């Protein structure tokens, strides 16, 4: 399914057949080109989109949930999503216009974005996804008669991200959680939260998936691949090395206290910081914040007290 204007290029959507009708895993971006690709792609394998029983959305992001509402309109089927992401969809749908921009701008300022704050806050965002009909919990079996498609809660990329274990075929739909060549964005929003640890959740979720064994992986991007457990080990090493580099940077600069934006500017991205647009800088800051939070949870860095309204700052815990 094409994603217009996005470097990922496409989302892989899967149809799981059953005697009661097919269930889709994800649905793609809400765009006419993607809709035609979905409708015609299903028809090419003998499936009429009007016969779809339901759509299981691995997480709420628009390249996965965007077309679920249109599939529901055409087929009368249901949409299912983990309860934690359903809560986010409700929040997003209630935060429009100036409310969203003001929230974004305040978050940027607390991160130390300075002049970048308004530009990031004013960047466009896609329409929110349709509100699901069914809320999933860890271990739930999907309503798919004759098959065993089980929910595996894998928070990190989003609070309610799920993988789906097709137990009767030894396969795992991994969404964005485990990808063969890249790693998913792990961000913390708002950036200065101290009550959650999305990267820590993600690393724990990798262990959950690895414990399922060497299943064939069917991801939402790139390509299918064998032995999902081996890939989870590689991804864990990637993040541990990233955390180690970040801690070294903070330690070298201590006793100076760094804002989240300072840290994001110094981290290595796929392009130089100066080449990143406002939205990309915002996502980079979210990822920097998630890594900082994990180091804080581990006790290797600490927050520096400041005046009310000042950006949050971090320094090495030993200082």
Describe this protein's structure.
- With 319 residues, this protein is of the alpha/beta class.
- The protein has a domain at 14-228: Metallo-beta-lactamase, Chain A.
- Helix content is 39%, strand content 14%.
- The protein has ten helices and twelve strands.
- It has helices at residues 32-44, 62-65, 68-75, 83-93, 97-111, 116-121, 198-210, 228-253, 260-266, 278-297; strands spanning 14-16, 23-25, 54-56, 78-82, 134-136, 149-153, 162-166, 171-175, 216-219, 258-259, 301-304, 313-316.
- The strands form three sheets. Strands 1-2-3-4-5 form a five-stranded mixed β-sheet.
- Helix 1 links the parallel strand 2 (23-25) and strand 3.
- Helix 8 (228-253) packs across helix 10 and helix 9 (260-266) crosses helix 10.
- It is globular and about 65 Å long.
- The model has no long low-confidence stretch (mean pLDDT 93).
């Amino acid at each position: 399914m094409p994603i217009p204007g996005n470097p990922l290029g496409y989302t892989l959507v899967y149809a799981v057949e059953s005697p009661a009708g097919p269930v889709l895993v994800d649905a793609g971006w809400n765009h006419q080109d993607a809709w035609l690709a979905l409708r015609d792609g299903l028809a090419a394998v003998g499936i009429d989109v009007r016969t779809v029983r339901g759509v299981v959305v691995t997480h709420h992001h628009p390249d996965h949930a965007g077309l679920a509402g249109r599939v529901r309109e055409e087929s009368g089927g249901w949409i299912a999503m983990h309860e934690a992401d359903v809560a986010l969809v409700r929040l997003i749908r209630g935060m429009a216009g100036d409310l969203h921009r003001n929230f974004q701008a305040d978050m940027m300022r607390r991160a130390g974005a300075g002049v970048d704050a308004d530009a990031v806050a004013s960047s466009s965002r896609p329409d929110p996804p349709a509100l699901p009909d069914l809320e999933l919990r860890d271990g739930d079996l999907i309503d798919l008669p004759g098959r065993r498609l089980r929910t595996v809660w894998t928070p990190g990329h989003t609070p309610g991200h799920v993988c789906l274990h097709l137990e009767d075929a030894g396969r795992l739909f991994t969404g964005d959680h485990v990808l063969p060549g890249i790693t998913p964005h792990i961000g913390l929003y708002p950036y200065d939260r101290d009550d959650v640890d999305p990267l820590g959740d993600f690393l724990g979720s990798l262990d959950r998936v690895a414990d399922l064994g060497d299943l064939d992986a069917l991801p939402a991007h790139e390509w299918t691949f064998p032995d999902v457990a081996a890939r989870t080990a590689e991804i864990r090493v990637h993040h541990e090395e990233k955390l180690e580099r970040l801690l070294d940077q903070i330690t070298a600069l201590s006793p100076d206290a760094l804002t989240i934006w300072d840290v994001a500017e110094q981290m290595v991205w796929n392009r130089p910081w100066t080449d990143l647009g406002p939205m990309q800088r915002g996502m980079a800051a979210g990822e920097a914040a998630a890594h900082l939070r994990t180091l804080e949870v581990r006790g290797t860095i600490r927050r520096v007290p400041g005046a009310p309204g000042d950006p949050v700052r971090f320094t090495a815990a030993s200082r």
